[in-house]
Amino acid sequence: MPIIRQPHYDLTQRPFLVIWEATQACDLACRHCRASSQPHRHPEELTSDEARHLIDQVEAFGHPRPLFIITGGDPFKREDLFDLSAYASEKGLMPAVSPSGTPLLNRENLGHLKESGTRVISLSLDGSTPEFHDDFRRVPGSYQLTLDGWRAAQELGIKVQVNSTVTGHNLDDLPRLLELVREMGAMTWSVFFLVPTGRGQADDMISPQDHEAVMNFLYEASHMVSLKTTEGHHYKRVVLQRQALEERGLPPEDHLPLNHTYYRLRDGLAQVGRAPAVPAPQERMRRSPLHINAGDGFVFVSHRGEIYPSGYLPLAAGSVREAPLAEVYRESQIFRSLRDRSKLEGRCGRCEFNRVCGGSRSRAFAFTGNPLAEDPSCMYEPGSFPFGLETTPETRVAS
Fold first, then answer.
1. CATH code for the structural domain at 17-206
2. For residues 2 and 133, what is the distance between their CA atoms, to the nearest angstrom?
3. What is the mean predicted confidence (pLDDT) over 198-202?
4. Average pLDDT for residues 367-386, to the nearest whole number?
5. One-character DSSP codes across 273-294
């Protein structure tokens, strides 16, 4: 398995992932919600016919077809969800759906979802206990509803990805959350790093030093569960660094800026994971990171049809109501700029890892108003890793 996975086709022509925000309606009120969701559907949402036209546009990218994820809000708030899932399945898109942990996440709805062709769902879980999770979601009972829905989905043969957003609120709970993900058998643990947009606030973010700590914790956890990161692009740099150190038999604490948070997380991993905190060099990750970024293999379509490089990067490049999705993805100025790593500024522009990382363009925009600025959550100083020249994309990434 390559250390950093990269689609074998041209990402300038076809995205790996298309996410459609089917609605912003949701019965939760999560502290970090990107969409600032409300209980009721917006009157300007894409209609059923417009949604089918969007699905046609995704299918028009050709083979291999992009992954197509229906998210929200809560997609179960749309009465036509099952019809649209079936239509996407007929087009060969194999849709995945991201429902919320509410009473709508029940066996009956999940059964209809499976009948309509959905084989994968993602559920958000932000704590290992109801106290952690329900406080985050601001609705009592959401934790239990999420776990009950998770079990029901598994019994129906639907695969489950678990999404967790890291904030100062749940930072030290990550090892216990990992244990729960592992014990219940998630397909993938997707760890989100907060971008201050929507209801997410900069004060809720962890520090750059703690980002580094969590990335290294996740590297070690990746030997135990399949995981990936969202808006944590420098995880790919950490993977390359840790692999380089392991090949030389060198301990990470001697060569990486690891703080007390990392040691707490590592100790927690050793306790709850029943595995050595530092894996043996011959062990391999079950899932290697994927090389995509905002506008570069990734496109987001809002509930009203606006086309964005990412759901966390509010720079609309067009609308599916006015132009073909493929045309906007391939030709719009913002998408083309984001795919040109030579345009990156600050430390991201100078970094030897920028072709596999590139930093969070969404977080750069949230803090500076410039999507090409350096990622403020990353503390790495370009050129400071002693083995950097041997871990460049040319030598370590399979195309």
1. 3.20.20.70
2. 35
3. 64
4. 96
5. H-S-SS--TT---SS--B--BT
